[in-house]
Design goal:
Belongs to the short-chain dehydrogenases/reductases (SDR) family. The structure is a single chain. A four-stranded parallel sheet has the order 3-4-5-6, with helices on both faces. The chain has eight helices and six strands. It has a single domain, classed as Rossmann fold, CATH 3.40.50. It is 44% helix and 13% strand. It is an alpha/beta fold. The radius of gyration is 18 Å and the shape is globular.
């Protein structure tokens, strides 16, 4: 999904910096690139692109990475916080079973990464105004009957609350902050892990009001809306991109 956000922003004419703990992660999930790296794909579109490897849960690494972006591009106008995921064993991630170690991993990957990037980028966004889009999940608003994603959802719920508070704080500086809460989206990573996690199945798709799983373009379209002037008076909001999934119970 992060790659798709980067490609859409580049197609719109933005110079793009990608900061990831592993810039070659796509190969591990069978995602085929059109160039050697994602930054190379973006350069082929005709924009400047920068790839930086850093652990975004570590504040010092984040500050160093953001400083490098500013040295390269001179400014920051848009921040998309896409890092994270339900990266611990879901069989052990319920409200009762989650270990302290797994909770620390989930909150570091999903919440701390967001806070660190927002704090590091805010001074640059405030110079001329800008936009922050934080990626949440519908798991912040609902769960399955086994509460398999309780701690992942809790971490993203923290992102939701943090985003609203940040929108209040940055609003006077003409910086808007919103969330996107995706549902079951068929990313390459979800497809690779679907069988082992009982995710993105046909039965689950049939239970969604729109009767299909989400595609990456569904999320990217909302991102484009939120970073554009079409949403110039929208801040502190969360848009669910889930086909109506949160309207029904399975």
């Amino acid at each position: 999904m992060g790659r798709a956000h980067a490609q859409r922003l580049a197609a719109l004419g933005a110079d793009v910096a990608i900061i990831d703990i592993d810039l070659s992660i796509s190969a591990k999930y069978g995602e085929k690139l059109t160039a050697e790296t994602v930054p190379d794909e973006l350069r082929a579109i005709g924009v400047r692109a920068l790839g930086i490897e850093a652990d975004l849960s570590v504040a010092d690494e984040v500050r160093d990475a953001v400083d490098e972006v500013v040295r390269e591009f001179g400014r920051i106008d848009i921040l998309i916080n896409n890092a994270g995921g339900a990266i611990t064993p879901i069989s052990e991630s319920s409200a009762l079973r989650s270990s302290g170690e797994d909770r620390a991993v989930l909150f570091a990957a999903n919440f701390e990464t967001t806070v660190n990037m927002c704090q590091a980028c805010a001074p640059y966004l405030m110079r001329q105004g800008g936009v922050v889009v934080n990626i949440s999940t519908i798991g912040a608003f609902m769960d399955d009957l086994n509460a398999r994603f309780a701690m992942y959802g809790a971490a993203k719920a923290a992102v939701e609350k943090y985003s609203r508070s940040l929108a209040v704080e940055l609003g006077p500086h003409k910086v808007r902050v919103n969330c996107i809460a995706p549902g079951l989206i068929e990313t390459p990573r979800v497809k690779a892990l679907a069988a082992n996690r009982n995710l993105a199945t046909e039965d689950q798709a049939s239970a969604i009001p729109l009767r299909r799983l989400g595609q990456i373009e569904d999320v990217v379209g909302v991102m484009e809306f939120l970073v554009s002037d079409l949403s110039a008076y929208v801040t502190g909001e969360s848009i669910k991109v889930a086909g109506g999934h949160t309207l029904v119970t399975n």
